[in-house]
Amino acid sequence: MTIGAGVLLWAVPLAAQSAPAVVAARAAGQIGERYDGYLGYAVATGPAVRSQVDAVNIRRRALFTDLAVKRGASPQEVGIAVGCELLGGVVVGEAYLLADNVWRRRSAGQPLPIPDYCRP
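Above: the chain's sequence. Below: its structure in token form.
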């Protein structure tokens, strides 16, 4: 997908990093990046984490919608393009969700979880 999602990447990770409960839950493998550009829940979490994840996802949705209008794409297409880039940043121990809807945790020595549809 060449929607130009890279333009958003400066904003998307910053939104997640500014939420302390999100940072801790991500490191613990409770939440992680989803293939569609949003954060998701790999396991049940508490209300503080849910609130912050929801806030991050609301900001991401606004960014995806804005870029979709500018690029003549759908917000879903933009989200998937951003998701491809964000999955490339998953580190060892973090959870992630691919389009098959199976949550995984990246382990040491495992290659980056980049789906085939993300490759040019």
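Residues 5-118 form one domain.
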